[in-house]
Specification:
Aminopeptidase
């Protein structure tokens, strides 16, 4: 099912679509522009490296011309050794020329809605608490959880899509998503 709809609250010329393999170079260039060279050293990257995004949860925003101007992806993780499954959101990025136009908010609302529709129970992220609070994220449920590697605890946030989904969860997040290399090999066969 091809997902594509306009963002009239931002601009009728922008579309959120499911990310495709052809979007990867443009997405990487956008992430470099929006986040800078240190983006690959972040703790969240350790959970994404070598993995594919969660099925159906990688989105691109494109202008009518096809230019990619926004991206967000969600990733499968477990909450500690043998813990429940959850999603890790990130990175969320918007072309710097479109900052403060509402595009990031539209991407967040869409990602949360799709994750809930697909039956996921919780989303975690590392980010700016005041920005993500408007979508329901807080540090209230992450006290017994941790990220691999260094991170700022007050920026480790969660949103329960199902009430109580994070109750009693503890430990360090672990990647559980599909491995990228295995998928490439199976496609080549």
């Amino acid at each position: 099912m091809e997902l594509a709809y306009t963002l009239p609250e931002v601009s009728p010329a922008l579309l959120i679509t499911a990310e495709t393999a052809g979007d990867v170079p443009a997405r990487e260039a956008l992430l470099d522009r929006a986040m800078g060279p240190g983006r690959k050293r972040k703790s969240s990257e350790k959970l994404r490296r070598g993995r594919r995004p969660a099925e159906g949860l990688a989105f691109a925003v494109k202008e009518e011309t096809g230019l990619l101007v926004g991206t967000v992806r969600l990733w499968n993780v477990s909450l500690g050794e043998g813990g429940s499954e959850a999603l890790l959101l990130g990175p969320l990025a918007v072309d710097p020329s479109l900052k403060n136009a509402g595009l990031g908010s539209a991407l967040m609302r869409h990602a949360i809605q799709e994750a809930a529709r697909l039956g996921h129970r919780a989303i975690l992220l590392v980010g700016d608490a005041p920005y993500y609070a408007r979508f329901g994220f807080s540090a209230d449920k992450t006290g017994q959880l941790s990220m691999p590697g260094p991170y700022e605890r007050h920026r480790f946030l969660a949103l329960e899509l199902v009430d109580g989904a994070l109750d009693g969860e503890h430990g360090t997040l672990r990647p559980t998503g599909r491995k990228a290399k295995a998928e490439r090999l199976s496609l080549a066969a």
